[in-house]
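Deliverable D4.2, example record:
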Amino acid sequence: MSFLKPPSSGISVDSTRRKELQKFQVAATLRFRRLELLNQAFAHRSWANEQETPVFNNERLEFLGDSVLGLVVAEYLHEILTDRPEGDLARIKSFVVSEESLAVVAQRIHVDRYVLIGKGEEQSGGREKKAILADCLEAIIGAWFLDSGFRPARKFVRQHLVPEIEKVLQNKHRQDYKTLLQEHVQKRYKTYPRYQVERKSGPDHDRTFWVAVEVDGQRYGPGEGKNKKEAEQAAAEQAYKALLDS
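Output generated by the structure prediction step:
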């Protein structure tokens, strides 16, 4: 059995959807042989759960695409940054493959226009959620790898992620304040930041979280976000900037 021939997604591609996917391929510089595979990459869990007959969502493709993405970015950094130690390469890679960075790329190639999401996600602004966009981009990478192999997948990743790598190298990217705070606290206090969810509100599909962070007995925050990760980043930013000024 070939690894490049996954089972059918069960998601039909009618003529209207086919035209939409063709438009996406032009924007993303892709040309799938199996459009059903690309269509599956757009299928968020919330949409798949609403279908009358069982269909695959994009989570398995996301899992695969995450690995392909990590390998290609690591290979590129190893290739161009010949004088950097492993720690620097790992830190740069973490920024490049972050949700923030991937969401930027996804928006650039209009993933938000074509992602299939459930009614609840649609009503709560799911097309603009960074997590959904980033996960969908990884699923597309996984689907492209299955459809055409590693070399085309590498070309696609490099084409769209090298600009994000350049932002990191020029320090023009959005900072990962959780990482910055942890490194600062480890060096200064020989300990780790501790995050605590103080409260949350709203229905499951539209939650808001407030998270505080404690550093050496001092509390900072709370930071606010639409998920715990965003709220932790907001709290970490407050703590990091305060510690730098102290």
